[in-house]
Amino acid sequence: MRKEFVGAGVALITPFKADQTVDFEGLGKIIDNQLDNKIDYLVVLGTTAETATLSKAEKQQIVDFVGHRVNGKVPIVVGIGSNNTASLIENIQNMDLSFANAILSVVPYYNKPSQEGIYQHYLAIAAISPLPLVLYNVPGRTGVNMSAETTLRLAHASDKFIATKEASGNLNEITKILRDKPENFLVISGDDSMIVPLISLGGDGVISVAANVVPKVIADMTHSALDGDFKTAAQLHLSFQRMCDALFVEGNPAGAKAALHSAGEIENVLRLPLVPVGNQTYKILAEEMQKLV
User: Given Cys at both, which of 109, 130, 195, 278 links 142, Cβ 3.0 to 4.6 Å?
Assistant: First the structure.
């Protein structure tokens, strides 16, 4: 089992300055906070990073910055996804992945491929990828669900597929994957609200949005559950639930950016079409930050 991806990972946001440029100083502070609070690995250029609005140059700059800042202390996963398989292959081949330990690649979005299309898409990536691959199933964003059967088919087809990030919210389907997966294939929660339930069934941790904001809570919750201390994990889950709801009620990463702004860490700036949360949500997030940080 790839222990470097068991535990609490964070899907890093991309902080922006008021002029819409990347706030590397703010990003550095967020990274340091993750490391100080025992987050196990970092995920760069995921959905939470507003990657769809970043230029190719910015993407490479961010990967390089994170790599230098981390300096080998924890593994790094880089998100590279597309609904154009040929373009995705080209992007993987052209990106400098010297700092990366794995690639996270989302199910093709908008096109709504069949299960066979999803399978063939990932096999094509595996054939050229220089790094292990983490599948990413998030039907609420992509418009299509990768079935448990397709996930298992891929997991058994190639050792290049080392894990799935499951954000379907369908515990029944996730249970099928846990039951029938290869021994060394990891099942990682893509939902902060599902960390403890998934681990209780044999899951391997989380790639968390909330860890941007409350890394100690997420790390302690995840590590407690993995250690079998579900009493502590449940207490942390319950204490965090109001924050978790508020983080996502007006979309991700708007909630995370609002919470960090309330703590004076970053500017509350997103790139269109995303916009900051409303005043009521901001107030709840600020209150929860005071309780949990």
Answer: 109
Catalytic, 231? Answer no
- For residue 159, how far is the Cα from the chain centroid? 21
Residue 39 · residue 10 · CB < 8 Å: yes
| Contact yes or no for 208/11 (Cβ under 8 A) | yes
CB 204 within 8 A of CB 188: yes
Six-digit token string for 252: 């991700």
Q: Does domain 3-227 have CATH number 3.20.20.70?
A: yes
**Other beta carbons less than 10 A from residue 124's beta carbon:** 14
The C-alpha atoms of residue 1 and residue 203 are separated, in whole angstroms, by: 12
The widest CA-to-CA distance across the chain, in whole angstroms, is 49
165 counts as catalytic: yes
- Per-residue pLDDT tens for 19-67? 999 999 999 999 999 999 999 999 999 999 999 999 999 999 999 999 9
Token pair, residue 105, equals 């690649």
The catalytic residue among 119, 122, 165, 257 is: 165
pLDDT number for residue 1: 43
Q: 81, 52, 49: which is closest to 65 by C-alpha?
A: 49
The Cα–Cα gap between 145 and 33 comes to 34
Give the residue extent of every domain in the chain.
3-227
Residue tagged active-site, from 41, 119, 122, 136:
136
